[in-house]
Write a structure and sequence with these properties.
alpha/beta, four-stranded mixed beta sheet, three-stranded parallel beta sheet, 7 strands, 13% strand
Amino acid sequence: MIPAFDAERTLAKVVRRIPRGLPLHGIVVVNDGSRDATSEVARELAADDSRLQLVDLPHNVGYGGAVKHGLRRLLELDVDVVACLHADGQYAPEELPTLLAELRRRELDLLQGSRMARGTALVGGMPVYKYVAGRMLTALENRVLGLRMTDYHSGYVLFGRRALTRVPFLRLSDSFDFDLEMIAAARAVGLAVGEHPIPTHYGDEVSHLKLVPYGLRVLRVMFNYVTGHYHRLERADRFQANGGERA
């Protein structure tokens, strides 16, 4: 699944780099109300690749909102695993087979790609301010979530079936903190969360993430985790799914 916003220059390269040998149910590109020709590029790709489907949103709904649309479409295809790959080319599609194998080998419900685990983030072009801010946030997140991860913010994430069905993702953020909320919510309901190293490449892609507002959103996610918000969401979702009867 590829959320895409103003990605006309990079989307085709990313899609064409997805390994052909992967057993895919489909590639869903979610055009998040782009102002450029992202939609047209996706349609041309779909004409050449039967694996690709386009979810064309008329208005920008935010990163998290776009991911939700993609997850919902892929659940309709009855998939077991969804990989979220960004459209700007920062993350390597070639790593998908390795990440999928790690998710299954370690019996994880959610696997986060880590730009920090190999210690090469700065070599790969990560701005120093993002590196420092990321390390500080990660220290806090590990303390709150009780994990020992090196990166919560890459956005290169694999979601297993239990994460997609146990976590009420439609109730989570429409912004860039969606991935972190998925991790926190999965952790809150007892699912297995882990990470695996991924290569880091920062080129001339445009980041739409604003660091200070994002940092405040991270703090809110940590507060929600500590106060049991995500556990209550999951219980309420199960209650509704059971027709109002307690599970």
